[in-house]
């Protein structure tokens, strides 16, 4: 399929359309809402499912194959918040807290964008390394630590790192991802096969329901778009594209396949909307949530979902000469 | 029925603060608390519409001194940056001496 | 299978038995209850699922094939509340508000009865047009508008139609059904195939759970049966049968297959228990909820589920000379 | 597979690992929690699912095949609380209420341990009688009645048996199990086949999610382990093993297969953590919940899950000379 | 700790009224509100058993004048046909001047 | 707006007691009640940490006499073995004569 064809197929997939339905329902002031418990249950399910599948793959992968990609991932996790912070401070004239908060979000990762990327690649028939979920778990925390560190360098504050680090490393998404990876790795492919009807077969359908809810939530953020300002709007689209390109290049350097490099690009380009907001709200309460939540959830997430996925894949094809 | 007049302190806060507020309660001498999930808005304020998330409502029956300390703690630690509301009433508690 | 055989098979299906289990649990004062969130999640799932399947069918159906059936459906949606209102006012001596409220319920449609009908036909091996879910979406609102209009003609009241119409057209069930139809239609059969393990394969099992909860709810209404009076009891059984017959005849005229006409009969015969109660409670607060809820939920719904489905199918066979 | 191999395979199954993940998450003070509604929904699902499957089996089983096993089960339900009570009073020096409360728990049954046992046997390729779920329903209540009766003999109290018996017999787990059995039995294998994608295929995956939550709950009980004392700790491990052995022997006498005897052993060895606590809290409020909950949930349940299952299977093999 | 005496108005109503009641609150000058999901029954009345559905409990801290207007609105618009309960208390609110 | 002063009795109890407490309410003359799901802890007591389960918060508007009887019932039947808290306040109820 050529580039336009892929972009079209992505936009017309049930997953992107369900997200659009959620947006439309909120914008039309429909009373549609999904129970909170369904949203929570689906996010537990999705995280555990990608952990399990990734773990089963890990069990048949030589661990050293992971080394290069892991280092590339860590480099992204440390680098992205550094330049984001600098750009937001210098060019965007944001205060310390807001700049650091945004840096934490864009350096960390959105699991649901990652999951959508797997769906996209599966549909396009592109193979990728099975261990990619391990990289998600690896990329979640470092950027947040780096960004909070930058804020503390600029404005020293009392209170230790203990609580923040503990909350990051034992946060729900890392525990489920890492736990799922371990379970999948230890019980291996036959173990995961026994639970595949739930954790593999239903995966795409569950993603459709989840994205419907994400659409409902995202649209509620739209009313804050005006407050975000043109600089941050541009930032929330341009930086992900640059990060995507960087992800592709690093992926190639680290020896990933074309599909794997596309996934790494998506990890780099995506911005957190669960782990980072929670950590930042506690550790940087003076940062303005309407800036970071709106940029991450109402701009970058829909952009990546609708346009980013095929774009990063095209970038990867260009870089890989495919 | 003999009852004891106590203060009921109610704190409404964004859910992310729950653990910290409970630590404060324990530290300042509250002997118990009850939590209900809530949602809310400060219709003209700025804060609550920005940080969208669930709220919790924490209620605790305490002596007037503990109530005073709790309100001071709220003012000192949370009012500046967080969406927090606190108020108190006098209520008549059965077996109230347990709590004061 | 002959008529009795079909009726028996329907009564002994897991779906009807699960409903009976729910009834029994409440009547025995068991503490069994399903979490509210499960009920809400299942109803989102069921509505979206029938939308998706119907939409995928629409994508391979010439749209003009829909025209006749759609007109027949609209005719039912306008006609049923008119004669229901007249009957309830004249013969039943109900007040304006109660008569209009009941007319709204019987003119609108019960999605779960529709879903149960599909299960019944699948099991009986009877084919039906794939676009029937579109008719459900079409039939939900008109009767409610007509009935509220009748009430306003009789007793003029202040307040515009705006809010009522908005709530009807953006109500959860229409948004999910119409949204599902659109998603299914746009993404087509291959798109829906990707999510079929969730939205198709699990459908009947989910219906069993949903009907268990419906049984629990319905039995709680039984205590109000006495208040409903003999006239309304008879109305709640006789009118559905007449509507069923009318649905079969209109289905035949509109060119539907035998299976499709059975479905249209069920749409006509079923009475709303979600959209209509919510709209009526707001727009006609002086109507007595214990009348319309009890008639619709505690009489007509169980009747249709247990006896109506095979009966309407027999009517269709008779009319189609099958 | 030899004994050690089986024990290892059990410990490394996704189901036991998920339980361990739940334990670890709580012990690491992670904020991971599953929504209450998910836990409730999963327990409804699991109970109904085993009922349906058992019922479908019953529909092709001559009912008299059930007689021997049912009598063996009832004997366990009456005997276990008697000697548990005596041991706890005499040797353990527990008060009347605490001894009776514990006797009720160990005489009743844990449905989730039973379910885990089926998973274990399926994986080990061992066949068992399909009607075993009926025995679970049979074993739940009698021991609780016997234990409460012992407490009343020792310390007469006012208030009739009515409320207690009613709550026991209409409790959620009995209603779902017995209801599922009936539905499965009446609608037979073809009826259950229609809902198998939900109630059969997803079963193991659902069990993994459920055990994750059980791990979270169990670990919260660990802090009370100190209060339980060495006697009760030993009791909570030794008695289950003895009951397991007894279950095997009675199973053999009652004519069960090797697999069936293993299941009966697990029923005997498991202790209740839903029906018994609720009944005991109402009927014996002076019994200390931290004793019975901790022993049953934090000691016996993990022991059975991790070590008991392969152990009871080995006992059965020894007794059956297999 | 300086507190301001305010009225806490509590409204318990069938869930279907939530949006309208919040509109009333905003219109009549309430500066915020907190909602909890509730269920209830009027054990001898007729209404609640007829319209079975969830209830919401809406609490708002307001000045005495706004409280008065809210109760009047309840009486005027809802009491006749809906299952609604309303009552008020005086509470001591920290940073209370925000709300009045 | 004319209001009637009534007692609001609040009972916080382990969920397993809900049915019995509602029976008590009906028997002792309460005309209605509202329930919210809660969770809580008695931070220094023993009971609540032992019986882990959900709590319910039951609120009822009643006359002073019924309030008195309710509190007596709580003390007589529940305080010894169960985790139960009860307290009362005076509130101003619209259409309050319905409840007393
Ligand atoms: N006037 C009010 N009455 C009752 N609750 C309020 C009021 N104002 C704010 N709240 C609650 O307190 C939370 C935080 O408010 P704020 O700190 O003003 O942003 C909101 O989400 C509401 O739940
Ligand atoms: N006496 C009462 N005390 C507390 N809540 C009540 C009382 N009466 C009614 N309610 C609540 O108000 C709702 C509506 O009551 P009503 O308007 O009397 O039908 C009920 O569902 C209860 O939640
Ligand atoms: N001081 C308190 N303030 C508010 N609620 C309390 C207090 N103490 C106990 N509770 C609540 O009452 C329940 C039972 O407490 P107790 O009877 O002391 O074990 C707890 O679960 C809490 O929800
Ligand atoms: Na990123
Ligand atoms: Na109809
Ligand atoms: Na047992």
Describe the protein's architecture and organization:
The complex is a heterohexamer, with three copies of chain A (322 residues) and three copies of chain B (100 residues). Chain A has 322 residues and is mainly alpha-helical. Chain A has helices at 3-11, 14-27, 36-58, 67-90, 96-107, 111-124, 132-140, 142-154, 162-169, 172-199, 203-222, 225-253, 258-269, 275-283, 289-319. In chain A, helix 4 packs antiparallel against helix 5. In chain A, 64% of the residues are buried. Chain B is α+β, with helices and mostly antiparallel strands and 100 residues long. Chain B has three helices and four strands. A four-stranded antiparallel beta sheet of chain B has the order 2-3-1-4, covered by helices on one side. Chain B starts with a strand and ends in a 6-residue tail after the last strand. Residues 44-51 of chain B have low confidence and may be disordered. Chains in contact: A-B, A-C, A-D, B-E, B-F, C-D, C-E, D-F, E-F. Chain C binds chain E through residues 36, 220-221, 224, 278, 281-282, 285-286, 288-290, 293, and chain E through 14, 16, 49-52, 54, 80-82. Bound molecules: adenosine monophosphate (3 copies) and sodium ion (3 copies). One sodium ion (NA) binds at residues 80, 106-109, 268, 270-271 of chain A.
């Amino acid at each position: 399929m050529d580039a336009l064809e892929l972009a079209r197929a992505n936009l017309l997939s049930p997953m992107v359309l369900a997200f659009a339905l959620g947006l439309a329902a909120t914008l039309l002031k429909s009373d549609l809402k999904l129970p909170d418990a369904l949203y929570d249950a689906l996010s537990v399910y999705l995280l555990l499912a990608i952990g399990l599948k990734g773990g089963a793959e890990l069990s048949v992968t030589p661990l050293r194959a992971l080394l290069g990609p892991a280092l590339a991932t860590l480099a992204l996790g440390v680098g992205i918040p550094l330049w984001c912070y600098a750009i937001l401070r210098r060019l965007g004239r944001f205060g310390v807290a807001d700049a650091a908060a945004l840096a934490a979000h864009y350096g960390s990762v959105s699991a649901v964008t990652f999951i959508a990327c797997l769906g996209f690649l599966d549909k396009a028939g592109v193979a990728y390394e099975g261990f990619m979920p391990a990289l998600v778990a690896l990329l979640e925390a470092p950027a947040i630590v780096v960004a909070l560190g930058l804020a503390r360098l600029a404005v020293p504050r009392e209170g230790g790192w203990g609580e923040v680090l503990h909350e990051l490393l034992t946060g729900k998404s890392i525990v489920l991802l890492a736990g799922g990876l371990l379970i999948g790795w230890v019980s291996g492919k036959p173990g995961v096969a026994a639970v595949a009807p739930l954790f593999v077969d239903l995966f795409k359908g569950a993603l459709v329901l989840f994205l419907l809810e994400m659409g409902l939530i995202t649209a509620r953020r739209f009313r804050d778009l005006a407050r975000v300002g043109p600089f941050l709007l541009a930032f929330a689209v341009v930086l992900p594209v640059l990060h995507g390109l960087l992800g592709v290049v690093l992926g190639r350097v680290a020896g990933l396949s074309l599909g794997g490099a596309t996934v790494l690009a998506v990890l780099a380009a995506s911005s957190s909307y669960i782990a980072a907001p929670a950590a930042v709200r506690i550790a940087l309460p003076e940062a303005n949530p309407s800036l970071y939540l709106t940029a991450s959830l109402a701009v970058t997430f829909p952009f990546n979902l609708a346009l980013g996925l095929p774009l990063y894949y095209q970038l990867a094809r260009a870089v890989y000469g495919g | 029925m003999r009852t004891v007049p106590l203060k009921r302190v109610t704190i409404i806060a964004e859910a992310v603060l729950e653990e910290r507020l409970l630590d404060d309660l324990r530290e300042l001498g509250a002997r118990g608390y009850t939590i209900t999930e809530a949602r809310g808005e400060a219709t003209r304020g700025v804060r609550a519409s920005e940080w969208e998330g669930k709220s919790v409502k924490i209620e605790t029956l305490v002596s007037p001194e503990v109530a005073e300390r709790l309100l001071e703690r709220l003012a000192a630690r949370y009012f500046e940056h967080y969406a927090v509301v606190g108020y108190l009433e006098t209520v008549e508690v059965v077996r109230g001496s347990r709590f004061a």
